[in-house]
Write a structure and sequence with these properties.
The complex is a heterodimer of chains A (496) and B (115).
Chain A: H1 8-20, H2 27-55, E1 58-61, E2 72-75, H3 77-100, H4 103-106, H5 110-126, H6 130-149, H7 154-185, H8 190-200, H9 204-221, H10 230-235, H11 239-264, H12 269-293, H13 297-317, H14 321-352, H15 368-382, H16 389-402, H17 406-431, H18 444-466, H19 468-483, H20 485-493
Chain B: H1 2-20, H2 25-46, H3 69-100
The chains are: A mainly alpha (496), B mainly alpha (115).
Chain lengths: 496, 115
């Protein structure tokens, strides 16, 4: 039975997390088990990618119940690509954690936290049931609460209270939105909801619910005007945790918007998708303002998350094949590059002993490899042609022109300049100029240990950009499936 | 009946919003408690309040008399989740009180290291 295999990327981290709980003080054991589990899960996700590509969406309904009555897990092209990306970048972040997070945290359930967060995220990418999506959201949020506060420094306590309260409110809103949706359509399976919404022709109440879902997922994904919590909360997290959050957590919200707005709420696009477009453009603009306003390495990269969320959602809001393909390309690219940038930024901060750009300088002489890697990552983020950010943004801009929104596309092009400026500023301040007296908190061995996974992750993004041709059929398949919800519905409900 | 419940839930949301906008951390946590009560009651109401028999198979009860079992299962799930999260934030608030020595969220900002 191929189908049960799609559960492996969820079950393996879950099982590993439980195994890890037994010997928290044995750090070697923790590291080895985590790495083995991640490798196994990545291999299984690769295998599923092949199957989904060859045979179309795969589904499992728990307990042999017929489709709308049980909980269905669906692995279509978009889900499996995101699951695979998640696992690959977590592999590098965990490797990076070995030399950054510190033994004290490793002894207090750091790795089980990461494994549970993976369970939640992979589950959220794979589930086909709206309430089950809520449960998986809570699984990864609960683990993220642990990871953000682990260590208990003052700044972590401040940031995590903020983060918790925001997420409790958005979770309550999620429950409310599900309650309203259930009272209108009377079902919870996403495929079945899509069928019922199509039968009802999306009356006004469903448009209201669509906007409510946009608010809920927008709070997770940090779109305008709901991104206010993100910089403060993320700034308080330690570097590898920040890399994990920055690469994954907001992207689950983006995925949820992508899924609901391509599968369920597609019958009143002149309102819902127009709203999404306006919000995504405002998200880009406010993200750009934030990225230029600060002289803090971490904050600059954090505001770049906000910009990228806006760009992806603009691609989604155009509702054409080009836009969705671009959104998929850019989503995967952005997850990889944000993880890499936070890792590199963390090394820069560790070397100079401060996150303030004005107090850094002249790192190029002593750390040339770090400098050039950061420059490549920065170019890739901005979308310079051979690198990975290019093709996604090209398709998204093209979709804007195709859908007759040329000015919006031009704003996206201009935002690329701002992105480039903001990260090149880090490069110029940190690597050029006079060498300054620094309170280095890092030895040359740990420097090498931290730089290796970061460089390898940058190599992955380069391969993703240069090998866009090889990835293209998968992305095309993903956007095809998103444009035709019928494929998804048929896979779940079986030709009804 | 649904109308009455809608008003009650509305008042719960109002009180929750008011409490969460205050400065004291404990009042915020009480607000989140009220918010989840409101959300849970909303699921129950939105599932429909018809049906006089509990959803347990028993002799002499027609299928049409059962209450909708699905919202009850959803609420049970949501209750334990919000219970877990509430326990976590209560302990976090206690810890924050110990090391930051304040219950006032306005005093917690401490943005001295902002560049």
């Amino acid at each position: 039975m191929h189908n049960n295999l799609l559960l492996l990327p969820i079950i393996i981290p879950f099982f590993a997390a439980m195994v890890l709980l037994f010997a928290p003080k044995n750090v070697t054991y923790q590291r080895i088990v985590t790495m083995i589990a991640l490798l196994a899960a990545t291999v299984s996700a690769f295998y599923m990618l092949g199957i989904v590509y060859a045979q179309g969406p795969q589904t499992v309904t728990f307990g042999n119940w017929p489709a709308p009555f049980g909980i269905t897990m669906v692995s279509d092209m978009m889900s499996i690509l995101l699951v695979l990306t998640t696992l690959v970048l977590t592999l590098f972040i965990v490797w990076y954690s070995f030399s950054t997070i510190g033994v004290e945290r490793e002894k207090f359930y750091y790795y089980p936290g990461i494994m549970f967060i993976l369970t939640g995220i992979n589950g959220a990418f794979t589930t086909g049931d709206i309430f089950n999506l809520f449960v998986f959201f809570e699984v990864f949020l609960m683990s993220s609460y642990l990871l953000i506060v682990l260590g208990g420094e003052k700044k972590q306590l401040q940031g995590s209270i903020y983060y918790l309260v925001i997420n409790i409110i958005s979770s309550a809103l999620f429950v409310i939105a599900v309650a309203f949706l259930y009272s209108v359509v009377g079902t919870l399976s996403m495929a079945d909801i899509a069928v019922k919404v199509a039968e009802l022709q999306q009356p006004a109440i469903l448009t209201v619910i669509a906007v409510l879902f946009l608010v809920v997922f927008g709070l997770k994904a940090a779109i305008f005007p709901l991104f206010f919590w993100l910089p403060k909360a993320y700034k308080s997290a330690p570097t590898p945790v920040l890399a994990l959050f920055g690469a994954l957590l907001t992207k689950v919200g983006v995925y949820a918007i992508l899924r609901t707005y391509t599968l369920i709420f597609v019958h009143d696009p002149s309102f819902t998708h127009e709203l999404l477009m306006v919000l995504s453009i405002l998200t880009i603009i406010f993200g750009c303002i934030g990225a230029l306003a600060y002289f803090d390495v971490t904050l600059i990269i954090i505001y770049n998350i906000v910009i990228a969320v806006g760009v992806i959602l603009f691609g989604v809001s155009q509702m054409n094949t080009v836009g969705l393909e671009g959104a998929m390309y850019y989503l995967v690219h952005d997850m990889l590059i944000k993880a890499a940038l936070f890792m590199l930024g963390g090394i820069i901060v560790a070397i100079s002993g401060t996150a303030n750009l004005r107090q850094m300088g002249g790192l190029m002489k002593r750390y040339p490899l770090l400098g050039w890697t950061f420059l490549i990552a920065a170019f890739s983020l901005a979308g310079i042609p051979p690198l990975s950010g290019f093709i996604g943004k090209l398709l998204i801009v093209e979709s804007g022109f195709a859908a007759n929104n040329p000015w919006m596309s031009i704003i996206i092009l201009l935002s690329s300049l701002v992105v480039l400026l903001s990260v090149i500023r880090i490069f110029i301040y940190a690597f050029w100029g006079e060498e300054k007296e620094t309170a280095t908190t890092i030895t040359s061995t740990t420097y090498a240990q931290q730089l290796t996974p970061a460089i390898l992750l940058v190599c992955v993004t380069i391969a993703y950009g240069v090998g866009a041709e090889a990835v293209a059929p998968y992305m095309a398949a993903a956007s095809e499936a998103l444009m035709q919800p019928q494929i998804y519905i048929q896979a779940v409900l079986g030709g009804k | 009946m649904e109308i009455v419940m809608a008003f009650v839930i509305g008042f719960l949301f109002m009180a929750a919003t008011y409490l969460m906008l205050s400065r004291s951390l404990l009042r915020i946590i009480i607000g989140t408690g009220l918010l989840s009560h409101g959300a849970h009651l909303l699921i129950l109401t939105m599932g429909g309040l018809s049906g006089e028999a509990p959803p347990v198979l028993a002799d002499g009860v027609e299928a049409s008399q059962f209450a909708d079992p699905l919202p009850q299962a959803l609420i049970l799930t949501a209750i334990v989740i919000s219970f877990g999260v509430t326990a976590f934030i209560l302990v976090l608030a206690y810890r924050a009180y110990q090391s930051l020595e304040t219950d006032n969220t306005a005093m917690m900002k401490g943005s001295d290291d902002d560049a």
